[in-house]
Amino acid sequence: MEKIIDKESFFEIIAKRRSIRVFSNDPVPKADLERILAAATFAPSGTNSQPWHFVVVKTESIRKKMAAAVEAKMDEILTWPETADKVRRINAYRRSFTFFGDAPVVIAVLGKDHQTIVRKTIESHGVVQSRNRPSSAHLSVAAAIQNLLLFASVLGYGTCWMTGPLIAAQEIEEILGVEEPWYLSSVVPLGRPAEHPVIRSRKGLDKVVTWMP
Ligand SMILES: Cc1cc2nc3c(=O)[nH]c(=O)nc-3n(C[C@H](O)[C@H](O)[C@H](O)COP(=O)(O)O)c2cc1C
After folding, report:
1. Domains of the chain and CATH, by start
2. CA angle, corner 187, sides to 182 and 189, nearest 5?
3. pTM over 0.85
4. Which residues are near ligand 1 (CB < 6 Å)?
5. Average pLDDT, integer, range 138-161
6. Which of 93, 95, 160, 202 for a ligand 1 pocket mutation test, highest count of atoms within 8 Å of Cβ?
């Protein structure tokens, strides 16, 4: 087989990617974003449906508006009676849900549902799956996001896959003009890293792999 990239380097790219939550203000050239987004689109997807769309936000006022919507939702949640005894614990999430507003680029990743004729038939037949399984579309969008993160890190950019901001998904969709059938799936801030966190530990293979005899 043709050797495209050294396998140890590729493993290193995967293993050394870290979530970055502090970014420099260096601008991100459009050509780099185009390559990163192209990498995302080479992800596999159910029946090659490619159920993703990427809204690239560079304008500071829009980024800040998105983050402010998450802040406001946090504040709202903290007025609910059931949060009265959890204020400190909930507030601990505030920064990790809102820091994306300070990144030079924010990519709002949208998804849309996609069902094969087989799946539609199964559901119309009344077969209800007993467990909450992710849809093929969700998994496809996730694969695109992982491609995006990895190729961004190859180009020296930091990213963080974020679903925390989805507490204000509706408000962010309104800010960005997202319309059905699209929905906000994740938020990915991107920029040159201004922090260099150490690799977070992972469970060993003995904990996550079952080798069938
Ligand atoms: C689906 C998903 C959602 C995440 N949401 C957030 C988030 O809202 N805020 C945040 O700071 N990190 C978020 N993360 C990043 C994780 O905290 C991070 O990937 C994990 O701690 C492992 O660290 P690493 O990415 O540096 O290896 C998310 C990651 C994934 C995969």
Report:
1. 7-197 (3.40.109.10)
2. 140
3. yes
4. 18-19, 21, 96-97, 160-164, 200
5. 98
6. 160
